[in-house]
């Protein structure tokens, strides 16, 4: 453990500052496909009873029309966050008819491309912007990609904590916003160093339905007529089979400073990419088919395992929000949906993430060179494709070390952060989670990816059948635990309000879509970072 980490933990454990660790927030975004009772993709629109996908704060769609996204409010404790997520699921099922929510990160058996509907947000300029962006994604990556689901974990520490650290470390000459932004970027760099561990411990997509690949070349092995896999994989979702393409391959935003991060993304949303230029922004009938012909249509197209974030204002771009007001929280995007958990993530996983991210935030975090970045990417890629392979090594400080040995070292380095969090709660929830993760390092058969493979091998080897079986189990749970009267009233009111808000946006808007896109692209770019 570094001296910096030791000092910071001691400072935060001391009486004047103990309570500051209670102040951070946790939010979860859970994606899940709507499927028919037979496990095939649903073709119905976003359920009217859920409200408006455009304006509802907690229930929306992501890429495909059938890829629902449930967004919790930000809460101080992950246990509360998961209660809120459970409530959203209960309500969603009460309006879902006979459809099911798919239990896996990788999609069900998929129909032909033309039969996968892109998410629709209504006729307003704002709604069309979101829809056309997704049309562009379909052109660039294919629609199958728009059916992948994940868990996004939004994490922040109390702003007072950063000020306490800044004062202790004599960084008072920096503005609080600058110090906090640098601290979150340092957290992200440490996350990049160690995120392979999350993929080993929580990856749950070692297999997929063969329809996902659309005939693309691959190195996967055949498990059955409809299922492909890699024997030691932890997360094929996070491998090069996921959201990847040539345009993004050279894009690696530098997280050594907020300026360089923003500058890289600003260039990408302004830099033409020849294959996209050949497609054009409109089709032969003059219909918009992508927002731009640049490397990225908007900065959210950059597919990263983690992002610095700031809540945006209406019409504002994410880059502009970061430029203006700095980093507010981080979004961890690499977590697979846990197919054995009804809401897709366990509290134990959340407790470990909290300890892991606190460790990343407080540990020393030197800049990452380009060469170092390539090594970190290789460690991550090895883990997602063969993390359970006996004797697998990763590169640490220029030497090869086994994944198990490094993992055990990391768990011990994280332990003091977990113990501090437990001392605030007066229990051992974080230490218990650490012990469970240590057990997975001792025995790869305890990992979720190994559990998925066992289920497949024991029950006919079909990923589609396994996914449907788990989806039915989760549906039975939520249907036997309907929302309380209070929950139902809360979400019914939100649904009505969101539909009214969408109607008002459509009624009140002025100007045409072409002008709207031009204004969005031009007026809100961060001109401080050419």
What does this entry show, briefly?
With 530 residues, this protein is of the alpha+beta class. The chain has helices at 3-13, 78-94, 125-141, 159-168, 176-194, 196-202, 246-249, 258-268, 274-279, 318-325, 347-362, 370-386, 403-425, 429-442, 448-458, 463-480, 485-508, 513-523, and strands spanning 25-35, 59-61, 67-71, 100-101, 151-156, 207-209, 221-224, 227-229, 306-309, 329-335, 393-396, 399-402.
What structural category do the secondary elements indicate? alpha+beta
The whole-angstrom Rg is: 23 Å
Looking at how many chains there are and whether they match, the oligomeric state comes to: single chain
Give the averaged pLDDT, no decimals. 94
Give the % helix. 40-55%
Largest sheet: 7 strands, antiparallel
Overall number of domains:
1
**In percent terms, what proportion of residues is strand?**
5-15%
CATH architecture heading = 2-Layer Sandwich
The termini sit apart by 40 Å
DSSP strand count? 12
Output the CATH class name: Alpha Beta
* CATH topology type: Creatine Kinase, Chain A, domain 2
Pathway: Sulfur metabolism; glutathione biosynthesis; glutathione from L-cysteine and L-glutamate: step 1/2
EC number: 6.3.2.2
Family: Belongs to the glutamate--cysteine ligase type 1 family. Type 1 subfamily.
Pfam families: Glu_cys_ligase
Could you characterize the architecture of this molecule?
Helix 4 crosses helix 5, helix 5 (176-194) crosses helix 11 and helix 6 (196-202) packs parallel to helix 12. This protein is α+β, with helices and mostly antiparallel strands. It is built from 18 helices and twelve strands. The chain is globular. The longest helix has 24 residues, at 485-508. The two termini are 40 Å apart. A hairpin with a 2-residue loop joins strand 7 and strand 8. It has a single domain, classed as 2-Layer Sandwich (Creatine Kinase, Chain A, domain 2). Strands 1, 2, 3, 4, 5, 9 and 10 form a seven-stranded antiparallel beta sheet that branches. Strands 6-8-7 form a three-stranded antiparallel beta sheet, with no helix packed on it. The chain has a two-stranded antiparallel ribbon with strand order 11-12. It has helices at 3-13, 78-94, 125-141, 159-168, 176-194, 196-202, 246-249, 258-268, 274-279, 318-325, 347-362, 370-386, 403-425, 429-442, 448-458, 463-480, 485-508, 513-523, and strands at 25-35, 59-61, 67-71, 100-101, 151-156, 207-209, 221-224, 227-229, 306-309, 329-335, 393-396, 399-402.
């Amino acid at each position: 453990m570094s001296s910096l980490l030791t000092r910071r933990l001691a400072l935060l454990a001391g009486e004047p500052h103990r309570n500051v660790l209670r102040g951070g927030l946790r939010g979860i975004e859970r994606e899940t496909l709507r499927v028919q009772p037979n496990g095939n993709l649903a073709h119905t629109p976003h359920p009217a009873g859920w409200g408006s996908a455009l304006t509802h704060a907690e229930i929306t769609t992501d890429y495909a029309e059938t890829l629902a996204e449930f967004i919790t409010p930000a809460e101080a404790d992950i246990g509360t966050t998961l209660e809120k997520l459970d409530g959203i699921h209960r309500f969603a099922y009460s309006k879902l008819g006979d459809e099911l929510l798919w239990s896996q990160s990788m999609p069900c058996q998929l129909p032909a491309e033309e039969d996968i509907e892109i998410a629709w947000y209504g006729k307003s300029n704002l709604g069309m912007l979101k829809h056309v962006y997704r049309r562009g994604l379909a052109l660039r990556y294919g629609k199958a990609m728009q059916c992948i689901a994940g868990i996004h974990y939004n994490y922040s520490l109390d702003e007072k904590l950063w000020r306490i650290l800044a004062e202790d470390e004599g960084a008072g000459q920096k503005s609080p916003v600058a110090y906090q932004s640098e601290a979150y970027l340092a957290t992200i760099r440490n996350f990049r160093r160690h995120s392979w561990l999350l993929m080993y411990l929580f990856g749950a997509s070692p297999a997929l339905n063969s329809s996902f690949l659309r005939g693309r070349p691959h190195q996967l092995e055949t498990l059955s007529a409809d299922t492909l896999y890699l024997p030691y994989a932890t997360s094929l979702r996070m491998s090069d089979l996921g959201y990847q393409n040539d345009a993004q391959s050279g894009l690696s935003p530098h997280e050594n400073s907020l300026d360089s991060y923003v500058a890289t993304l600003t260039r990408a949303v302004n830099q033409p990419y020849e294959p996209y230029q050949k497609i054009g922004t409109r089709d032969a009938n003059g219909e918009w088919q992508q927002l731009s012909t640049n490397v990225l249509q908007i900065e959210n197209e950059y597919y990263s395992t983690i992002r610095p974030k700031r809540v945006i204002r209406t019409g504002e771009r994410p880059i502009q929000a970061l430029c203006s007001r700095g980093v507010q929280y981080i979004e961890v995007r690499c977590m697979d949906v846990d197919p054995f958990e009804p809401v897709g993530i366990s509290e134990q996983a959340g407790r470990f993430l909290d300890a892991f991210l606190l460790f990343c935030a407080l540990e020393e975090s030197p800049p990452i060179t380009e060469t170092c970045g390539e090594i970190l990417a290789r460690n991550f890629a090895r883990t997602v494709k063969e993390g359970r392979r006996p004797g697998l090594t990763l590169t640490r400080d220029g030497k090869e070390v086994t994944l198990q040995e490094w993992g055990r070292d990391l768990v011990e380095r994280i332990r003091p952060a977990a113990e501090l969090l437990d001392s605030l709660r007066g229990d051992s929830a974080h230490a218990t989670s650490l012990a469970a993760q240590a057990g997975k390092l001792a025995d790869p058969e305890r990992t979720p990816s190994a559990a998925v493979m066992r289920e497949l091998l024991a029950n006919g080897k079909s990923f589609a059948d396994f996914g449907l079986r788990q989806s039915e189990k989760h549906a039975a749970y939520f249907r036997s635990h309907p929302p309380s009267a209070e929950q139902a009233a809360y979400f019914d009111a939100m649904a009505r309000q969101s539909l009214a808000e969408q109607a008002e946006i459509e009624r009140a808007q002025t100007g045409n879509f072409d002008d709207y896109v031009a204004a969005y692209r031009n007026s809100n770019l961060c001109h401080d970072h050419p």
